[in-house]
């Protein structure tokens, strides 16, 4: 029988019925070691070094380490920070001082605002902006050409057809919603 007072249900796990077990998990009263225990063990036993410690297990498509904790996929560097430094403050990101996405060395990690994290990514060259973005349809040179051609009077639809891209891409470049930083860098 379930350990909860006046509950007559059959035990599911850790002495509790299914309902009380799920409730205790939601409240954080039960910590579950995941099937990825080797990953958590790796994070618990990190050596003290100033060098990057790269996550040796699975990774997200973004390059960050992937570890499962309480049946949720989490970034390994965030879990490393929580295990070795402390809780992540609300509305803060865990930032890499080294710019190496798979790094889980707590000495390279810090909690900071999202804006500061994006500024770091730009400074380190790890932000997928412009041609570094794998989904980019045009290059920076083409973006400059688009802006120049439309400014000189050519219709956006004609520019889009000549480049073989969607007219919305041309419009976004002309309006400055995309490629604005790259165009500024090239023309300055």
Fold topology:
Blueprint: H1 18-26, H2 37-44, E1 66-69, E2 72-75, H3 76-84, E3 93-96, E4 109-112, H4 114-124, H5 140-151, H6 156-163, H7 167-175, H8 180-187
Antiparallel strand pairs: 1-2, 3-4
Helix pairs in contact: 5-8, 6-7
Features:
single chain; 188 residues; mainly alpha; Homing Intron 3 (I-Ppo) Encoded Endonuclease, Chain A; 3 domains; two-stranded antiparallel ribbon; 8 helices; 39% helix; 9% strand; elongated
Notes on the structure:
The chain is mainly alpha-helical. It has three domains: 1-30, no CATH class; 37-127, Homing Intron 3 (I-Ppo) Encoded Endonuclease, Chain A (Alpha-Beta Complex), CATH 3.90.75; 133-187. The chain is 39% helix and 9% strand. The chain contains eight helices and four strands. The chain has helices spanning 18-26, 37-44, 76-84, 114-124, 140-151, 156-163, 167-175, 180-187; strands at 66-69, 72-75, 93-96, 109-112. The chain has a two-stranded antiparallel ribbon. A hairpin with a 2-residue loop joins strand 1 and strand 2 (72-75). Helix 5 packs across helix 8 (180-187) and helix 6 crosses helix 7. It is elongated and about 80 Å long. The relative contact order is 0.08. The model has no long low-confidence stretch (mean pLDDT 86).
């Amino acid at each position: 029988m379930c350990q909860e007072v006046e509950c007559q249900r059959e035990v599911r796990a850790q002495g509790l019925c299914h309902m009380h077990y799920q409730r205790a998990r939601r409240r954080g009263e039960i910590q579950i070691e995941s099937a990825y225990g080797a990953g958590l063990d790796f994070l618990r036993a990190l050596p003290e070094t100033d060098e990057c410690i790269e996550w040796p297990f699975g990774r997200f498509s973004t390059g960050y380490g992937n570890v499962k904790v309480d049946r949720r996929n989490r970034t390994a560097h965030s879990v490393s920070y929580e295990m070795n430094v402390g809780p992540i403050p609300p509305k803060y990101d865990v930032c890499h001082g080294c710019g190496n996405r798979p790094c889980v060395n707590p000495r390279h990690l810090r909690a900071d605002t999202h804006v500061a994290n994006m500024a770091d990514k730009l400074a380190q060259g790890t932000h997928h902006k412009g041609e570094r973005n794998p989904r980019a349809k045009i290059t920076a040179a083409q973006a400059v050409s688009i802006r120049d051609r439309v400014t000189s009077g050519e219709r956006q639809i004609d520019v889009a057809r000549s480049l073989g891209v969607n007219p919305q891409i041309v419009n976004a470049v002309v309006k400055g919603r995309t490629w604005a930083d790259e165009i500024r860098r090239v023309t300055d």
